[in-house]
Fold this protein.
Amino acid sequence: MAGRQTTLRTRSAARSDEAGKGKSASAGVDRRELILTAAARRFAEFGFEATTVRQIADDVDILSGSLYHHFATKEEILEEIVRDAVQAQLDCALRIGRLPVNAEQRFVTLLVELLNIVTVEPDAHTVVFHERRLFRRSPDFAHILKARKDTYDAWCTILEEGVSEGLFLQDLDIYLTITTVMRMIYNGADWYLHEDGSPIDALSDYPLDELAQFYVGFILRSIRSPERAGELIPEPVAVS
């Protein structure tokens, strides 16, 4: 898993470096990709509604009117940013849901893989998480909502099977478990990527796999059936 994380983090860093060169980019650089990267960064940090087309255009050193040669609306930019991120989460959940292992192993794998996914493309996944109210308001994002609902259902199925197998608490609140875990993973990924050197943040420096192990153990201790409290935490399953 460590090798895979290194590759993914390198790819993410390279993309960020490319975005940072927007104002000095040569004509050969994919302008559309630069716009998407700049917009994702702004949407993630300031929010979709607070970001203007002019700001995005300035980030890539083009006129606002020129941006409309690539995208008809700001909403179209948002849709393209979140579409692949949402689909990646859904594909991951469905693939893990089919693994021939018990529900707890699948759930552990799902937690670890989600943390990996979010840290690879942090801006896009942050936008997916923080703009969920906007998606609910606009019919143009119905397909995004459906993919998110399908992802939730895949998580729900794994937890329900864990309850029925006696692995998890019989009275487990599955909705609160999933939403709490999601928030924990997103916040953890943000902290891991953007630790700012403040006195509290700088107390320790954790590698990603150690952060994942902590979350897995913390969550399982909260949802396991009491008689299983002392059992070893399973390793995540390799996902192709």
In short: Residues 74-97 form the longest helix (24 residues). Confidence is low (pLDDT under 50) at residues 1-28.
